[in-house]
Amino acid sequence: VQMVQSGAELRNPGASVKVSCKASGYMFTSYDIDWVRQAPGQGHEWMGRIDPEDGGTKYAQKFQDRVTFTADTSTSTAYVELTSLRSDDTAVYYCDAWTAGPPFRNYWGQGTQVTVSS
């Protein structure tokens, strides 16, 4: 299984960013995908989840007015788009494909650095 994310991004405050996560090695629709970020010096912060099978989403309250998750089953790729970027959105963004099984399994992408700076 591989989860390959898009490359680093640099954005100005107020802009938007879209990060991709391409999955391979498993049936894309059988695992949910969580998006998690880690700001410098901070722990992991859960942003939400998408079910690629039906496109159903769940957003953390903190992000729900600025974030959109999508999944393209034709290319086995998940996306997170974050709008109205602020400097405190600077972080490494990760996708995490998981299934409760049993057994529980999960697979992380390598992370995408997003830097918001003027």
Structure overview:
Helices cover 0% and strands 54% of the residues. It is built from no helices and eleven strands. The protein has strands spanning 2-5, 9-11, 17-24, 32-38, 44-51, 56-59, 67-72, 77-82, 91-99, 105-108, 112-116. Strands 2, 4, 5, 6, 9, 10 and 11 form a seven-stranded mixed β-sheet that branches.
Quick overview:
With 118 residues, the protein is an all-beta fold. Helices cover 0% and strands 54% of the residues. It contains no helices and 11 strands.
Which properties best describe this structure?
118 residues, 4-stranded antiparallel β-sheet, 11 strands, globular
What's the number of helices? 0
* Fraction of residues in helix: under 10%
Largest sheet: 7 strands, mixed
Mean pLDDT: 97
Q: Quote the beta fraction.
A: over 45%
Question: End-to-end span in angstroms?
Answer: 37 Å
Morphology: globular
Number-wise, the strands total: 11
Radius of gyration: 14 Å
Structural class: mainly beta
Low-pLDDT stretches are none
Helix-strand sequence: EEEEEEEEEEE
